[in-house]
Amino acid sequence: MLIVGDARARMKSFESTGRVDAAPADDADVRALRARVAALEARNALLADRVTELAFLCDASAMLAATLDPTSIAQAVLDAVPAATNGRAKSWLLLLRDGNAIACHGGAGVDATRAEAFLDAHRGPIERSLRTGEIVAEPRSYVAVPMPAGPLEPGFGSIAVIDPGETGLTAVEIRRLTRLAEIAGRAFSNARVLAESLVAGVTDELTGIYNRRYLARRLGDELKRVRRLGERVTLVLLDLDHFKSVNDAYGHPEGDRVLRAVAQTMVEAVRDIDVVTRWGGEEFAIVLPGTEGPEAIAVAERVRSAVASLRWRTASGAELALTISAGVAWATPDIHTPAQLIAAADRLLLDAKHAGRNRVVARSPVSH
Questions:
Q1: Cβ neighbours for 226, distance < 8 A, ≥ 6 positions apart
Q2: Are residues 278 and 355 in the same domain?
Q3: In terms of domains, do 253 and 151 share one?
Q4: Residue 5 is assigned to a structural domain of this protein
Q5: Is residue 25 part of a domain?
Q6: Rounded CA gap, 84 and 180, in Å?
Q7: Is the dihedral of CA 54, 58, 59, 60 positive or negative?
Q8: Are 357 and 276 contained in the same domain?
Q9: Distance (Å, rounded) from C-alpha 223 to C-alpha 239?
Q10: Which CATH number does the domain housing residue 254 bear?
Q11: Computed from CA positions of residues 342, 343, 345, 351, in that sequence, does the dihedral angle turn out positive or negative?
């Protein structure tokens, strides 16, 4: 039997091992197999990255969904940056829009001086990114990712990695930062909606001051303090004199403008601790915490005088003389509820109107 070449090698292998080796695969098949293995490894690596990213997004979403407080949302965003960048980021900031300005609202790995210096140096590009929604990046220098707000509205701010490490952030890490910014934008948007709804629930739509619902709640709180701690509280009920004639002569839109002007005048005439509310129609109420007697009467007189000094001109140019009547009642041991204090102040308001209007009537209330 003639044995040559590879056949001889195969026989020698059989003699030493007891088995015959398979013939070598064709080179093209080997290359194809290696390419297939490389593709599978790349796919596995991509899937591993996606799993890691999904885990990160799940954690970030849960963390940001746990609160509607803007301060807590800001801290949660800062805490999520290391995971988003695989620990590559060394220093980062959260920049938030405040009206037309941008301010730093916290960071890590950076002091206030450096934060302000960074913002001063890059304010222009970051402001543009908030308008366009585009990422601002200088390789190995910084990356600023905007947090989107509503349509046609500048972003809430930016997540700025100002020290991305020696090699900079990878495309995967920037993508994670972008996803984090999108989640943060939704969280800030939800917080804003909540804040607006809370304000709407206690604010008078026409005048912008507190409404009747808030008055009842605030009076209840103040009267509890009176009972528990011996505090004082006064309620002033006010009525805009002859307001019907304004609506009849100049129309309801002019009447609305008058109500807004009177409300603002009252707010400016009282102390910072006092609470001006719209009771309904042309009636207003002012809560004076920690006040009774002559001090409370003095506040009511100051409000009356401020309104009387308001020289209001209508849209047609007519000048109106505006006055108010006020009833002032403060809490006593027999006042237990907001309704009782309101009733007492309302009786005194009627006395002021019957006495000729444009005056303050006050005395300690007596329940009936």
A1: 232, 233, 331, 335
A2: yes
A3: no
A4: no
A5: no
A6: 8
A7: positive
A8: yes
A9: 23
A10: 3.30.70.270
A11: positive
How many other CB atoms are there within 10 angstroms of residue 32's CB atom?
12
CA distances from 105 to 95, 188, 284, 347 (A): 6, 14, 39, 51
| Residues 52, 157 within the same domain | yes
Q: Are residues 203 and 210 in contact, defined by beta-carbon separation less than 8 angstroms?
A: yes
- What does the angle CA 173 – CA 176 – CA 181 come to, to the nearest 5 degrees? 130
* Largest CA-CA distance found in the chain, in angstroms, rounded: 139
Residue 243 has a CB neighbour count (10 Å cut-off) of 18
Instruction: For residue 205, give the 3-state DSSP assignment.
Output: coil
* Structural domain of 280: 212-362
Q: Round to whole Å and give the CA distance between 235 and 270.
A: 13
The answer to whether 303 and 250 are in contact (CB under 8 A) is no
Do residue 50 and residue 174 come from a single domain?
Answer: yes
Number of folded domains in the chain? 2
Q: What is the pLDDT of residue 14?
A: 46
Query: What is the distance, to the nearest Å, from the Cα of residue 326 to the centroid of all Cα atoms in its chain?
Result: 38
DSSP state, residue 189 = H
Q: Mean pLDDT by 10-residue block, N- to C-terminus, for the chain (368 residues)?
A: 48 51 63 78 70 68 78 91 90 91 91 92 93 88 92 91 87 91 92 83 92 93 90 96 93 94 96 94 96 95 96 89 96 88 96 96 60
The amino acid present at 191, given as its one-letter code, is A
In this structure, the answer to whether residues 293 and 187 fall within a common structural domain is no
Kindly give, in sequence order, each residue whose CB lies less than 8 Å from that of residue 36, ignoring residues fewer than 6 positions away. Answer: none
Question: What is the rounded CA–CA span in Å between residue 300 and residue 303?
Answer: 5
Residue that the structure tokens 């020289």 belong to: 311
Using N-to-C axis directions, what is the helix angle for 171-202 and 212-229, rounded to 10°? 80
Sign of the alpha-carbon dihedral angle for 172, 85, 83, 69: negative
Burial of 183 (0-12, 13-18, 19+ CB in 10 A): buried
Cα(247)–Cα(253) distance, rounded to whole angstroms?
8
Helices (H), the chain: 5-17, 27-65, 70-84, 112-132, 171-202, 212-229, 243-250, 252-269, 293-308, 338-354
Q: For tokens 């990114």, name the residue.
A: 129
Helices (H), 243-325: 243-250, 252-269, 293-308
Bridge pairing between strands 324-330 and 360-362: parallel
